Amino acid sequence: MLLLVFTLFFNCQNEIKIPQDSTETPFVWESANLYFLLTDRFNNADTTNDVNFNRTEETGKLRGFKGGDIKGITQKVNEGYFTDLGINAIWMTPVVEQIHGGTNESTGFSYGFHGYWTKDWTKIDPNFGTKEDLHNLVSAAHAKGIRIVLDAVINHTGPVTDSDTVWPEEWVRTDKQCTYDTYDNTVSCTLVKNLPDIKTESNNNVALPPQLVAKWKAEGRYQQEVKELDAFFERTGYPRAPRFYIIKWLTDYITEFGIDGYRVDTVKHTEAYVWQEFRAACDYAFSEFKSNNSDKVLDDNEFYLVGEVYNYGVSSGKQFNFSDKEVNYFEPESFHSLINFEFKWNAKEMGYEDLFKRYSNVLQGDLKNYGTLNYLSSHDDGSPFDAIREKSYETANKLLLAPGTSQVYYGDESARALVIDSTIGDATLRSFMNWDAIAHNNSTKEVLLHWQKLGKFRANHPAVGAGVHQMITQSPYVFYRSYQNGDYKDLVVIGLDLDKGVKSIDVSKVFKNGDLVRDAYSEVSNKVKNGSLQIESNFNMVLLEKL
Question: What domains appear along the chain, each with residue ranges and CATH number?
Answer without folding.
Answer: 1-25+463-547 (2.60.40.1180), 26-460 (3.20.20.80)
